[in-house]
Amino acid sequence: MEQRLKAEAERLGFAACRIADADAAPKSAARLRAWLDAGHHGDMLWMEERAHQRGSPRGLWPDVRSVIMLGMSYAPGRDPLALAGAPDRARFSVYAQGKDYHDVVKKALKALARWLVEQQAREGEAGGLKVFVDTAPVMEKPLAQGAGLGWQGKHSNLVSRDHGSWLFLGAIYTERALTPDGPERDHCGSCTACQAACPTDAFPAPYVVDARRCISYLTIEHKGPIPEALREGIGNRVYGCDDCLAVCPWNKFADHAAANKAFVGRAELAAPAIGDLLDLDDATFREIFSGSPIKRIGRNRLVRNAAIAAGNSGDPRLLARLQALVGDEDPVVAEAATWAIGKLSA
């Protein structure tokens, strides 16, 4: 069953498929609790509210016996750091430049789940299953390490010897006992490249990220004004940040041919002008970002981010566009525009 399962997963577009027992990540609950107690989750209150379910698979579903962890590659076709020296251009995280991974991965997971149900029926077996992609209280990364898919690197994301740092993760919980593959060991060694690359010093220690200082959190999850002390570090990033992932030495072994074509970056998101993002109204935003994970943050948050990037650009030609945002109906956008004007006028 296990080998046929992995073959079917590959046919459906997954670059990796491994199996773990439901208790394959026994330290997850304690690490999560310590992270929450330190306040590293910022405004992500759902992390706290469902910690009892997130800590272990059985906390969410008592009947689960095995966890099938799957990885779908989104290895980029171009250098994720190429726009670092182009302050007039906006940088979107690699994962968000193609189709929404929630939709793509979940579709493949559901297809694999249907296959599993059919196989069980043919074998006279019974047992329920559940599929998860990022939105449920599931500790995907520790479980992926427990299944042998990779290991949690010092940047806290999963690293694979075959796919580097570029894997979307999905999980299937099943009541059926499957043969586990065994865990992957940590291969980070003495490397601290990801820690050193962070523009806002978001790593208080190796393997620990303080979301309150992380550009991905600040530009995507955080709804209010971004702390002024962190704005310069954001640079021209308007949605997420790839720096800690991009510098990982294991990326040189990444199998770019395995990357799912659904995640190929859209041309209009490769190097958009910051000024064009400042002009977005809600209708245009929705039209441009339909089918993209970027759509979920809404026009106001993206324009807030673009205003901060404009302030960091050093380009006085953006002043008129920023001035038009000073009276924006969203006070957070208006504040960011006012700050950017002050920065460019200094």
UniProtKB/TrEMBL annotation:
<comment type="pathway">
    <text>tRNA modification; tRNA-queuosine biosynthesis.</text>
</comment>
<keyword id="KW-0819">tRNA processing</keyword>
<feature type="binding site">
    <location>
        <position position="241"/>
    </location>
    <ligand>
        <name>[4Fe-4S] cluster 2</name>
    </ligand>
</feature>
<feature type="binding site">
    <location>
        <position position="134"/>
    </location>
    <ligand>
        <name>cob(II)alamin</name>
    </ligand>
</feature>
<feature type="binding site">
    <location>
        <position position="191"/>
    </location>
    <ligand>
        <name>[4Fe-4S] cluster 1</name>
    </ligand>
</feature>
<comment type="subunit">
    <text>Monomer.</text>
</comment>
<keyword id="KW-0963">Cytoplasm</keyword>
<keyword id="KW-0479">Metal-binding</keyword>
<keyword id="KW-0408">Iron</keyword>
<dbReference type="InterPro" id="IPR016024">
    <property type="entry name" value="ARM-type_fold"/>
</dbReference>
<feature type="active site" description="Proton donor">
    <location>
        <position position="134"/>
    </location>
</feature>
<dbReference type="GO" id="GO:0052693">
    <property type="term" value="F:epoxyqueuosine reductase activity"/>
</dbReference>
<feature type="binding site">
    <location>
        <position position="223"/>
    </location>
    <ligand>
        <name>tRNA</name>
    </ligand>
</feature>
<keyword id="KW-0411">Iron-sulfur</keyword>
<dbReference type="InterPro" id="IPR017900">
    <property type="entry name" value="4Fe4S_Fe_S_CS"/>
</dbReference>
<feature type="binding site">
    <location>
        <position position="188"/>
    </location>
    <ligand>
        <name>[4Fe-4S] cluster 1</name>
    </ligand>
</feature>
<keyword id="KW-0170">Cobalt</keyword>
<keyword id="KW-0560">Oxidoreductase</keyword>
<dbReference type="InterPro" id="IPR011989">
    <property type="entry name" value="ARM-like"/>
</dbReference>
<feature type="binding site">
    <location>
        <begin position="241"/>
        <end position="242"/>
    </location>
    <ligand>
        <name>cob(II)alamin</name>
    </ligand>
</feature>
<feature type="binding site">
    <location>
        <position position="54"/>
    </location>
    <ligand>
        <name>cob(II)alamin</name>
    </ligand>
</feature>
<dbReference type="InterPro" id="IPR017896">
    <property type="entry name" value="4Fe4S_Fe-S-bd"/>
</dbReference>
<dbReference type="InterPro" id="IPR013542">
    <property type="entry name" value="QueG_DUF1730"/>
</dbReference>
<feature type="binding site">
    <location>
        <position position="216"/>
    </location>
    <ligand>
        <name>cob(II)alamin</name>
    </ligand>
</feature>
<comment type="similarity">
    <text>Belongs to the QueG family.</text>
</comment>
<keyword id="KW-0846">Cobalamin</keyword>
<feature type="binding site">
    <location>
        <position position="214"/>
    </location>
    <ligand>
        <name>[4Fe-4S] cluster 2</name>
    </ligand>
</feature>
<dbReference type="Pfam" id="PF08331">
    <property type="entry name" value="QueG_DUF1730"/>
</dbReference>
<keyword id="KW-0004">4Fe-4S</keyword>
<protein>
    <recommendedName>
        <fullName>Epoxyqueuosine reductase</fullName>
        <ecNumber>1.17.99.6</ecNumber>
    </recommendedName>
</protein>
<feature type="binding site">
    <location>
        <position position="158"/>
    </location>
    <ligand>
        <name>cob(II)alamin</name>
    </ligand>
</feature>
<feature type="binding site">
    <location>
        <position position="248"/>
    </location>
    <ligand>
        <name>[4Fe-4S] cluster 1</name>
    </ligand>
</feature>
<keyword id="KW-0671">Queuosine biosynthesis</keyword>
<feature type="binding site">
    <location>
        <position position="169"/>
    </location>
    <ligand>
        <name>cob(II)alamin</name>
    </ligand>
</feature>
<feature type="binding site">
    <location>
        <position position="198"/>
    </location>
    <ligand>
        <name>[4Fe-4S] cluster 2</name>
    </ligand>
</feature>
<dbReference type="Pfam" id="PF13484">
    <property type="entry name" value="Fer4_16"/>
</dbReference>
<feature type="binding site">
    <location>
        <position position="244"/>
    </location>
    <ligand>
        <name>[4Fe-4S] cluster 2</name>
    </ligand>
</feature>
<feature type="binding site">
    <location>
        <position position="194"/>
    </location>
    <ligand>
        <name>[4Fe-4S] cluster 1</name>
    </ligand>
</feature>
<feature type="domain" description="4Fe-4S ferredoxin-type">
    <location>
        <begin position="176"/>
        <end position="208"/>
    </location>
</feature>
<comment type="function">
    <text>Catalyzes the conversion of epoxyqueuosine (oQ) to queuosine (Q), which is a hypermodified base found in the wobble positions of tRNA(Asp), tRNA(Asn), tRNA(His) and tRNA(Tyr).</text>
</comment>
<dbReference type="InterPro" id="IPR004453">
    <property type="entry name" value="QueG"/>
</dbReference>
